[in-house]
Amino acid sequence: MKTDLFMKRLFGIVFILGLFPLVTFGETSPFTVKASLLKDRVPAGDLIPVAVTFTVAPNHRIYKDQVKVESGDPSRFTIASTELPAGKIKYDQFLEKEVENYEGQIEVKSFVQAPRDTPPGVQEIKLKVRYQGCSDKICFIPKMEEFLIPVQVESADWSMTVSQLEEKTL
Question: Does the structure show a pLDDT above 60 at 62?
């Protein structure tokens, strides 16, 4: 009799533990993030424009001040700047203050610096994108996603004179 009760409880625990991954990991995120180049080829030493696109499900939002684009390998590529679009200011019940949020689809532009000594050829830029989002009912833990973006780096001609550069830009 004790064996039957023990087996039933053991079966119940195994069943619940078996469902846990389905419940926890089977849910889809209300946020999707993609990163892509805005230029196919860049000379070594140039800024590489990258677009990070967030798609936010209805009734959800991402905090603007939590969006960060970082280099995953700062010894090879650094983030020169990031341009965040304006968000919508709304009262946040969790923070109990007005905050700037993103809803729907937004694009963040970052500029990655390729060092002058970057060898020509295909190089991989490793980006880390950090963000945090909420719904009206819950806030999600801050999230970080990594991207490897291939870029064609061309050798730069640093032998140009100042007058040649001025002519080229005019």
Answer: yes
Q: Which pTM was predicted?
A: 0.73
DSSP-assigned letters across all residues of 44-88: TTSEEEEEEEEEE-TTEEEEGGG-EEEES-TTT-EEEEEEPPP-E
Token code pair at residue 115: 């060092």
The 121-131 sheet, strands edge to edge? 41-43, 143-154, 121-131, 68-71
Going 162 to 168 to 169 to 170, the CA torsion angle's sign is: positive
Class of residue 43 by CB neighbours under 10 A (exposed 0-12, middle 13-18, buried 19+): middle
Instruction: Give the contacts of 105 (CB within 8 A, at least 6 positions apart).
Output: 53, 54, 55, 56
Residue 164 to residue 158: CA distance in whole angstroms: 11
Backbone angles phi, psi at 116, to 5 degrees: -60, -30
Q: Looking at the predicted structure, is the pLDDT value of residue 59 above 80?
A: yes
